[in-house]
Design a protein that fits this description.
The structure holds two protein chains of two kinds. Chain A is built from ten helices and nine strands. By secondary structure, chain A is α+β, with helices and mostly antiparallel strands. In chain A, strands 1, 2, 3, 4, 5, 6, 7, 8 and 9 form a nine-stranded antiparallel sheet that branches. The longest helix of chain A has 20 residues. Chain B has a two-stranded antiparallel ribbon with strand order 1-2. In chain B, a hairpin with a 3-residue loop joins strand 1 and strand 2. The N terminus of chain B is likely disordered. The chains are: A alpha+beta, B mainly alpha. At the A-B interface, helix 1, helix 2 and helix 3 of A face helix 1, helix 2, helix 3, helix 4 and helix 12 of B. Chain B: Keywords: Lipoprotein, Signal. Chain B: This is Efem/EfeO family lipoprotein. Chain B: Its main location: other.
């Protein structure tokens, strides 16, 4: 099959004939489509960040958006299967997505339609909403490299399926995938709209393997959101303003991996079912011992404030550890490895077999090497008290491209 | 959606135009307002021949449908259960192929093709249920034709009425363009779930016929589509082939298909994906109206 759909050369004349030019011109004026867009056969469209958009994060940057971006209230995460085997099609899909993602992050309709005999180009459910801090983050997995032999030499050696962890009960329906699209926004419909349109435009090239919506709620005035066990999640994250720390923890530095991944990062995603029914019949004291933190303040056990230094060796007057050795925070802290967590809660009806809530955490972490996540997860191992209350049902690992420079497209360096 | 088409459309509309120089931009703004231009273009699209070809096709299908229904009713009333069972899915294929036209008559479609679930949804009871699916129930579940003679007679009467009515149908571009996508939507929503033929499990016959109906419309419009977008033709041809090959896996004998019950979840998912992948570019056929 020859892939020509992206590269079609259209003479300007015939193009003008195809859609009413007057209206299109007026649209540009009205919506402030700014930039110069190259429309050469082999070059992608260029679309610009619209500075006048409301509640907008910029797309063009050293790094992809949606990683150190302040956590939004909603996510729609999709893991896609590719239906092709060549690098060119991957490149075309990424070229096609790039300007669309800019539009989505601008909060603009992708392209208003003029022909009533075809379906609208933009599915439209975000019309009238502003950008709502929409971000779209794209990554690729080890299985993608397995399917595209041409790219074999580009696969970083650390990009492999995550190993099996103790107590994993992975469901194939929520595991793996070749490409991920993480769409986040301060609005569930905006996040979903982004994924829906990106998948739709690549119909026949990709299909959704699994997807999960999620949410976060923030206390008035900001602060760390709570998970469905009511504990604050993400307190120990590196400061997103500390550039040097982020280089140590999150961003792949030159020479640390394949060149195309420099300034990129690894996204580990786990769909973790939280057994709300058992948790809700657990004594409060036991709940706090399970996490190793005070629930309401978020402070480490024995401390007063959320951001007080965690000292896992601190003992009480009887010589007992303040933070039990089997507590979640103790085990996480024992490992030197760190990562940037960016998780969302989910509630998706009930488990058909048990009738229990199918609810939990769509755990997402960013780290410059998968080993950081693996070390922390291994430390939890069989010891983690939290294991009693959670089951890991889904898992995937993706290498997220670096950010895009104006004029380029997602993952361009992969094809050089 | 067909990728090439969308990029073409993206290019063709607002996004591209920013690339034009100011001079070009100025010229364009001076041009005739868009609405007028659109109307002019629309007038220029002449589908007379295509509409006539489609009408001839659909009417021929309805002829066959009536003949086969007549034969089916005869076999049924003669209590030739096995022969009636054999003809049942085959006769229905003519109806399913020309559904965009057959469906234009609101009352008759449910009388001929209504499922018990549809009837009940409308607040009616089993006694109001007529048509093919009731006879399907008689043949496959009840295992007898006795007591269903009146239903068989009614089916033939309704088929005759439909046949008379379709002769007057006004085939419009919309009927063809929307009809093709609707045929696929039929497959996506009821055939793929096995809800159409819950007793006989002959869903794959309807499936195949719906696809053939859509493909026929594509064939008729092909040269017009080619003028606008040759790559869309290629994509559609490839996607129809993919689906045909997928369906061929389930063929049984010369003109039959296996029971839908034998398909695994994986099988139906693959079929569903192929239908959706065909549906997106198929929905772009409307570019011929530009």
């Amino acid at each position: 099959m020859t892939e020509k759909w992206h590269e079609k050369k259209i003479s300007r004349r015939s193009m003008l004939k195809m859609t009413g030019i007057g209206a299109a011109g007026a649209i540009i004026g009205a919506s402030g489509f700014g930039g110069v867009m190259k429309v050469m056969s082999d070059e992608p469209l260029i679309k610009e960040d619209n500075a006048s958009s409301i509640n907008k994060y910029d797309f063009y940057n050293t790094h992809q958006p949606g990683i150190i971006t302040p956590v939004q209230t909603h996510i729609y995460f999709a893991s896609l299967t590719i239906l092709f085997k060549d690098a060119k099609t991957l490149q075309n899909v990424l070229q096609l997505w790039t300007p669309m993602i800019v539009s989505l992050m601008n909060g603009e309709e992708i392209t208003p339609s003029t022909n009533g005999y075809i379906p609208p180009i933009d599915t439209g459910e975000a019309i009238g909403l502003d950008a709502r801090h929409c971000t779209v983050t794209v990554g690729i997995s080890a299985s993608l490299f397995n399917k595209i032999p041409e790219l074999e030499s580009k696969q970083p050696k650390e990009l492999q399926d995550l190993p099996h962890f103790p107590k994993d009960q992975l469901d194939p329906a929520y595991t793996g995938g070749d490409i991920c699209i993480q769409a986040c926004a301060d609005d569930p419909q905006v996040a979903f709209h982004a994924v829906r349109n990106l998948v739709r435009v690549a119909s026949g090239k990709v299909e959704v393997h699994w997807a999960q919506a999620g949410f976060n709620s923030f206390p008035k005035g900001g602060g760390t959101p709570r998970n469905l066990f009511a504990f604050k999640d993400g307190t120990e994250n590196p400061q997103i303003t500390d550039k040097e720390d982020l280089k140590r923890v999150v961003w792949v530095q030159p020479g640390e991996s394949k060149a195309w991944l420099t300034n990129g990062t690894y996204l580990a995603v786990r769909r973790i079912q939280m057994h709300l029914e058992t948790w809700d019949r657990t004594a409060f004291h036991e709940q706090e011992n399970t996490f190793g933190r005070h629930r309401d303040s978020g402070a480490p056990l024995g401390s007063k404030r959320e951001f007080d230094q965690v000292d896992i060796t601190a003992k009480d007057e009887n010589g007992e550890l303040l933070m039990p050795e089997t507590s979640h925070v103790h085990l996480a802290k024992k490992v030197k490895a760190r990562m940037l967590r960016r998780s969302y809660s989910y509630a998706s009806g009930t488990m058909t077999k048990t009738g229990a809530h199918d609810a939990g955490l769509l755990f997402i972490s960013f780290q410059k090497h998968p080993q950081q996540f693996i070390d922390i997860q291994n430390s939890f191992g069989r010891l983690d008290k939290l294991n009693e209350y959670i089951t890991h049902r889904g898992s995937a690992l993706f290498a997220c491209f670096p950010g895009v420079e104006k004029g380029s497209y997602l993952g361009e360096a992969l094809f050089k | 959606m067909n990728k090439k088409t969308i990029i073409a459309t993206l290019l063709a509309s607002g996004m591209l135009l920013a690339a034009c120089t100011d001079k070009e931009e100025a010229t364009k703004k001076d041009n005739t307002p868009q609405t007028e231009e659109k109307e002019q273009t629309k007038e220029a699209v002449d589908l007379t021949q295509e509409l006539a070809t489609y009408k001839a096709f659909a009417l021929a299908q309805m002829d066959e449908f009536l003949l086969e229904t007549e034969q089916f009713v005869t076999l049924f009333k003669e209590n030739k259960i096995e022969e009636a069972k054999h003809l049942y899915p085959r006769a229905r294929m003519y109806f399913e192929r020309s559904e965009p036209i057959a469906e234009s008559f609101g009352d008759l479609d449910p009388k001929i093709d209504g499922r018990l679930a549809d009837i009940e949804e409308e607040g009616l009871g089993e006694e109001d249920w007529t048509g093919y699916h009731k006879l399907e129930y008689a043949l496959w579940v009840d295992g007898k034709t006795e007591g269903y003679e009146a239903v068989a007679d009614q089916l033939l009467a309704d088929a005759k009425e439909l046949h008379a009515l379709v002769q007057t149908v006004d085939v419009t571009p919309d009927l063809m363009i929307t009809g093709a996508v609707d045929l696929l939507n039929e497959v996506s929503t009821s055939k793929i779930t096995g809800e159409e033929e819950i007793y006989s499990h002959t869903d794959l016959y309807d499936f195949k016929a719906n696809i053939e109906g859509a493909e026929k419309i594509f064939e008729i419009l092909k040269s017009k589509i080619h003028e606008k977008d040759p790559a869309l033709v290629t994509t559609l041809e490839e996607n129809f082939t993919t689906l045909d090959q997928l369906l061929a896996k389930y063929q049984e004998g010369e003109d039959g298909y296996v029971s839908y019950e034998t398909l695994t979840e994986e099988d139906t998912k693959a079929l569903s994906a192929a239908v959706n992948q065909l549906g997106e570019p198929l929905s772009q056929m409307g570019i011929i109206m530009e």
